[in-house]
Write a structure and sequence with these properties.
mainly alpha; about 160 residues; N-utilizing Substance Protein B Homolog, Chain A; 7 helices
Length: about 160
């Protein structure tokens, strides 16, 4: 992500991943982290020209950001169980890089929201977010896990079209 990004929903997703990571690492409640982000990292501050590289998400859509973080926190046990089921036995959720875990939790939370964008859009967005944090195989892993979750949480979106 670069300074001046104009994709508020993507910025919200990046900020949600950062907030989930921060909440887990600092053992701080998600509500406290949401409050901190809203006050100090999201939106424009007077005279502010900071962008993603400064840890800010000036274009983020705050309601989406807060909803993703709250859903991930409120449904964490259920979502973590689903994520664990979608991962191979060689890669348990608790052993994943904490940023990758936050990416997957945020994506799973958004897939959990039945009134959100189509599952394929959510998966593609989090694939982009993962590429912003990782250069290796992590984005591919996140893509595969979120695809498995999407098929569980939103099976109607993956029904093949009838043949002509």
């Amino acid at each position: 992500m670069t300074k001046g990004a104009t994709r508020p929903r993507t910025a919200s997703r990046v900020a949600a991943v950062q907030a989930l990571f921060q909440s887990e690492q600092s053992q701080t409640s998600p509500e406290s982290v949401i409050d901190e982000f809203v006050r100090h990292r999201l939106g424009q501050l007077p005279g502010d020209d900071a962008g993603f590289e400064d840890g800010r998400s000036p274009d983020a859509h705050v309601p989406l950001f807060a909803r993703i973080v709250r859903t991930a926190a409120q449904q964490q046990d259920t979502l973590d169980g689903m994520l664990s089921g979608a991962l191979s036995a060689d890669w348990p959720l608790e052993k994943l890089d904490p940023v990758l875990r936050a990416v997957m939790r945020a994506g799973a939370a958004e897939l959990w929201m039945q009134d959100g964008p189509p599952a394929r859009v959510v998966i593609n967005e989090y694939l982009d977010v993962a590429h912003g944090f990782f250069d290796g195989d992590e984005p591919r892993m996140a893509n595969g896990v979120l695809d498995r979750l999407a098929r569980l949480l939103r099976p109607a979106e993956f029904v093949p079209a009838p043949s002509p």
